Hints:
- This protein is an all-alpha fold and about 325 residues long.
- It has one domain.
- The protein is built from 19 helices and no strands.
- α5 crosses α18 and α16 runs antiparallel to α18 (about 280-295).
- Mean pLDDT is about 80; it is low at about 5-10 and about 325-333.
Amino acid sequence: MNLHYKAVIGSDFQFHAKIAKDYSEGKNALTKGEAIRVNGGPYPPLFHLFFALCLLISTGFAVVIMYAFQVLLFPAVMAATLFLIYKKMNVRAAAFAGILMLTSIALFDRAAQATPQGIDMILFPLAVYFFLESRKIPYIVTMSAMIYNHGIWSYLHFGALILYSLYKKEKIMYHVWTFIVTLPLFVITVIYLPGYMRIHSSVQSTQELVALGSTWYLIKYMGVIIAGVTVIYLIYLAIALIKKARFPYKLSNLEQIALLWMLTLSSLFFIIRDRLASYIVPPLVIILAGFIVRKVKSRRFYIPLVLLSTIIAMIFALLSWIIWFKAGTQVAV
């Protein structure tokens, strides 16, 4: 699809590898060099410090870890999201969500790359789980790690849980302590905010340019099946609201968070649309899976479907790694 649109997908890992290499050589990679030039401001250090540590062990070890990430990140994103849905909704919702997630090109593209975004998409479902389970310390640790991993983009996710707490008037101190723990990065983000906005309000890749100019490409990139089910859901919702003048069913706590999650992510439509297409998939499939299970009552085969979805995700990730490797991609570390 991307070849057809002349928007060839390329891993961001070269950029992140350069920053990690600078850290491993004792350079100030936070406020000087590649991150400032490409990102408009400091890049959160956690991901790069991890790979810098791997580089200090040996270059070969770092490359092995990177390839392991390439294979394992996508199934890990699937597993974390499906675990959240299974625990806070039910196994049927997890099964349908898994099937829908597998149809998203964008989710596979971004989650199958060894980049901070893939880590984001593992950590946030875990943070939501800990939050709903009222496990304060694990929540603060997980959410803080996510912010130190991806900074300004993680704040969009963090904002969804803050809005939920304000709406419910509960667990507000969870976020206060998370903010305190991540205050240094917040201060840096505010200082460099003009630079971030200048860089990310401009087109950074061919893929971004195509996504900006073609809504149809963006829909196909996110996933035609997901888009189709979303249209069916919106039609059902419109009819129900016209007939009953109220929402047709009570949303679970997780579904309420998913709506706020999509709301805070929606700003990406005006900044970096191709990333929105991948980030929006987990909360959207939560809403769609909740709708489907209320309409499909059969209880057979759900656990096998969840397992099958995860296995297919692992096969997809492994095949992408083989193709990527055979294409001659080299890691400049």
